[in-house]
Amino acid sequence: MPELPEVEVTRLSFADRIANAHISDVRVGKPLRWPLGVMPTSLIGRKVLGVRRRGKYLLMDLNQGLLLWHLGMSGSLSFSSDGAIANMSPKPHDHFDLQTTHGLLRLNDPRRFGAVVYADSEASASAQKLLGHLGVEPLAGQFDLDTFHKNLKQRSAAIKQVLLAGDIVVGVGNIYASEALFLARIRPTVRANRISRLRAEKLRLAVIDVLAHAVAKGGSTLRDFSNAEGQSGYFQLEANVYDRAGLPCRQCGHLIKRLVQGQRATYFCPVCQKP
DNA sequence: CACGGATCCTGATGGC
DNA sequence: TGCCATCAGGATCCGT
């Protein structure tokens, strides 16, 4: 479900409200992608210091250790400060509850590709196994052209798949990869190491632009996205190419094409986007 | 070490 | 209406 913008919007919707809360209970539902890595009851009494984001992970700092949250393909978080949701019994796909003195943080994830993982510190092996290989943050001023272009030159895979891999720059998922490549006018099948410095700069700016814009719009192109306050689902950002196979390009009118790369759908305009 | 494919799981959708 | 195949926002593991 979530790419970087959805994760960030989710974070913004509850981080302030949960800060300084104390964990009063933990409920674990069906197994998620990875085990929690600690006895759930051992978290009771700890204090939530804040919530950061790294790529598509949310990092919840506790006064001792931290929790890493990932929403996978179909996950979403809800947080209720009042008692309304706090008293609601879990629905079938509610697989993790963090009850705090400020409210209930609940993970709903039908496909269970998401996870909540405890780590003693961000530098610990369990955290680094998940975070250690991640690329730079695109919206934190660390995403510079020299490094980006140098990294692209070392990769022979298609640029779409290199973006998705997340080890050069994080947060670009399947929707925004197609959208960014459209904005940069680059064909998704172009090998990364064949991209000129000039085109790498266009792509860098396109990635920043599409992600920042989606965060600012408070949501995304996702049909069923809702933040942790339950505000949902407006399709605010109009996709240029994603899920538009057979429809006319908004720029030139030619028909958008769909192809499959690494078992993932890719959409592009064969006229606007050059090999 | 980078690449391509298989894999985890459930629900929605479309064709017949 | 039922059944089956296909597809879906992610990321890891494995063989090459």
Gyration radius (Cα, Å) is 20 Å
Low-confidence stretches: none
Tally the structural domains. 2
Overall body shape = elongated
Q: Please report the total strand number as a whole number.
A: 10
The CATH superfamily label of the largest domain reads MutM-like, N-terminal
- The succession of helices and strands, N to C, reads HEEEEEHEEEHHHHHEE
| Whole-number mean pLDDT | 93
* Tally of individual helices: 7
Secondary-structure-derived class: alpha+beta
Strand order of the largest sheet: 1-6-7-5
List keywords for this structure.
single chain, 275 residues, alpha+beta, N-terminal domain of MutM-like DNA repair proteins, Helicase, Ruva Protein, domain 3, 2 domains, four-stranded antiparallel β-sheet, DNA-binding
Structure description:
The chain has 275 residues and is α+β, with helices and mostly antiparallel strands. The chain has two domains: 4-131, MutM-like, N-terminal (N-terminal domain of MutM-like DNA repair proteins, Alpha-Beta Barrel), CATH 3.20.190.10; 145-268, Helicase, Ruva Protein, domain 3, CATH 1.10.8. The chain contains seven helices and ten strands. The chain has helices at 4-18, 83-86, 125-131, 145-153, 159-165, 174-183, 197-216; strands spanning 23-28, 48-54, 57-62, 66-70, 76-80, 94-100, 103-108, 115-119, 257-261, 264-268. Strands 1-6-7-5 form a four-stranded antiparallel sheet. Strands 2-3-4-8 form a four-stranded antiparallel sheet, with helices on both faces. Helix 1 (4-18) packs across helix 7, helix 4 packs across helix 7 (197-216) and helix 6 packs across helix 7 (197-216). The two termini are 29 Å apart. The mean pLDDT is 93. It binds a DNA duplex (16 and 16 nucleotides) through helix 5 and helix 6.
